[in-house]
């Protein structure tokens, strides 16, 4: 499984590693023969924004792209929301 996250702003290496782990957890059990994920983590410099952290991912499963994203107050919260949304998307794919 190929997972790669780019970062923008004051996003730590630990956060990038956490995002990769979250995506791996969300994709556990998928029966896709090919899986790759490209994503971004960003933190806006303006901390007064209501949701300055953004996590986005495009998971390609068997050649079909599935895009998920989440905005939150912190990068950790955005990663958790991203994992939840990707887990739901994968569950829906399994059911169909």
Automatic annotation (TrEMBL):
It comes from the Bacteria. This is Uncharacterized protein.
